[in-house]
Each structure stands twice: as structure tokens, then as C-alpha cells.
Amino acid sequence: MKRTWLDGVLNQKFLLYTFVVVITLAVTVHLWSDKICLPDEWSDEMLREWLQKNHIFFEETDSREVLIEKVKISLKKQ
């Protein structure tokens, strides 16, 4: 059976392993990278949860704008 160029490339372990490592690194960086998202894009539930985790007082009746302002002020302090 005649060998094709693909057979030759796949038989070279170095190229195959290099390809696998590059793809694995790319996927890892993509999955572990910070998802930059502004508080304006968060849901109300996410805003309340973030404020609770950071021990910042808020009222259940606070509007979305008030929650966003509290988060932004807290982020500026950090």
C-alpha cells in the first residue's frame, strides 16, 4: 500500500505530540482565562450574590442601579 503524506506526518511523533500540546494549551487558556464582564451585564441575582459574598450591605428593595453602583464602588476600592 502506498504511503500518503498524511501517513508520513502521523508517523513523525514529534509533530503529532506538538500539535496535541498546542491544542491542549489553547483550550486550557481559553477555559481558565478571566471572563471580563462589567457589572452592568450581571443579572440582579448575580449582583446580590456578589455583594453578599463581599459583606456589603444592601436592601432587598434596592433597585438594579443602586446595586450596580455599590458593586462599582467596591471594585474601585480593591
Structure description:
The chain is an all-alpha fold and 78 residues long. The protein has two domains: 33 residues; 43 residues. The chain contains four helices and no strands.
Q: What's the layout of helices and strands?
A:
Elements: H1 5-11, H2 13-32, H3 44-53, H4 64-77
Helix pairs in contact: 3-4
InterPro entries: Ish1/Msc1-like
Keywords: Membrane, Transmembrane, Transmembrane helix
Pfam family, one: Ish1
Number of domains: 2
Residue ranges: pLDDT <50 for 5 or more in a row? none
What about the largest sheet? none
Radius of gyration, CA atoms, in whole angstroms: 24 Å
With helices defined by DSSP (H or I, 4 residues minimum), what is the helix count? Answer: 4
What's the total number of strands? 0
The helix-strand sequence is HHHH
Overall geometric form: rod-shaped
Share of helix among residues? Answer: 55-70%
What does the average pLDDT come to? 88
The structure class reads mainly alpha
The termini sit apart by 66 Å
Strand content: under 5%
Transmembrane segments: 14-32
Pfam family, one: Ish1
InterPro entries: Ish1/Msc1-like (IPR018803)
Keywords: Membrane, Transmembrane, Transmembrane helix
Provide a quick synopsis of the model.
Helices cover 65% and strands 0% of the residues. The protein is mostly helical.
Tag the structure with descriptive keywords.
78 residues; mainly alpha; 2 domains; 4 helices
